[in-house]
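[agent] plan:
  1. take the single chain provided in the ticket
  2. run structure prediction with default settings
  3. attach C-alpha cells to the ticket
  4. add a short note for the reviewer (M.T.)
[agent] executing step 1
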Amino acid sequence: MESKHDELLLQILKDELNITNFLNTFFGFMCRCTDFYVESTQDQKLGFPAGVAEDLVLKIYRKWKSRFEADNLSRSEAQAQTSELLEPTEVVEVEVETSSNQIDDEPIKTYKTPVQPSDSYNGAVRENYTWSQTISDVDALVNIPSNIESAKDLRVDITAQKIRIAVKTERLRENNSLDKYSDDATDSEWIVTFDEELSFKTQREESMWCIIPGYYVHVHLEKATERWWEALTKGEPHIDLTKIDCSRPIEDLGANEQMKVQELMWNHQQKLLGKPTSDQCNLERVLKKAWNAEGSPFKGTEYDPSVLQYN
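[agent] step 2 finished; step 3 output follows
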C-alpha cells in the first residue's frame, strides 16, 4: 500500500538513522506545531479529552499491525502452496524429520493477545465478539476455540454486509466444543461458528482479516459511508452514540476542514502568546484602510491602534 508521502518519510527516516529517532521527530513535531497534547476541559474545548490521544495512537498502530499480519499471512500461504508443488529431495526429508523431533521435545511458543478494554473503543463487548469503530472503519474481534492456531483451520467469508466464519469440525471435536455450535453430530468438514449480517454496508474490497491464535479472528472493515454505527450486527443491542468519542484525526478531514482546524490551532497559539488572532489581524487591516478613508476623523494622521477598541 503506497502513500504519496512515502518518499518524504523515507528521507526523514534516513536522516534520523533509526525508528526511535524517527518517532521522536514525529511526536516532537506534534508537540511544537499542533495541539495534539492539549487536554480539553469544560472551559477549554480545544484538544482531546484525557486519555483519548493515547487511545488514538494505539488504535492507528493496531490498524496497521493487522494489515501487516494479513499481508504476511497471504505471503506465507502462497509460499506454502508453492512448496507443495516442488518434489522434495532426500536431504529435505532428513531435515524435516529432525525438525519434527525438535517440535515434539520443545512445544512451539505462541504469543497470544487477550481482548483489552481499548478493543471496544466506541463499540461494545458481546458474548462471542468485541467490536470498535472510528467514523470511517470498524474492527471486530470474533472469538475462536483455544486450539485454533492456524488460518488453515478457518474459512472466513466477508461480503459488503456480512461476516461468516467456519471452523474445521475435527478441531472442534478435539476441543470438545462441537456441541456448542451444532446440536447434532455431523459429517461435515466445516462448522459455521459466526454468521452475522452487519448493520450497514462496508467496502468489500478493503476488508481484511487475520488470526490471533487461540483467541480471535481480527476482521477490519472500511465503512461504505462515514457514519457512527449503533451496533456491529443486526439484532445486537444498540450503544449510546451520545457517549462515544467523536473526535477525528486531522488527516481524515477534508482540505477545507483541515485548513479551519489549523487556523483554530494557530489562533489558540496566538492567544497563549498574547498576540492577535487571525480575526483580529483581519479587523486591524480593515481599520488601517479606514483610518485614512474619506470622512475619517483620523485622516492624515499616523495609525494608532491604542485609540481603538475591539474584541
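[agent] step 4 note for reviewer: The CA atoms of residues 107 and 224 lie 43 Å apart.
[agent] ticket updated
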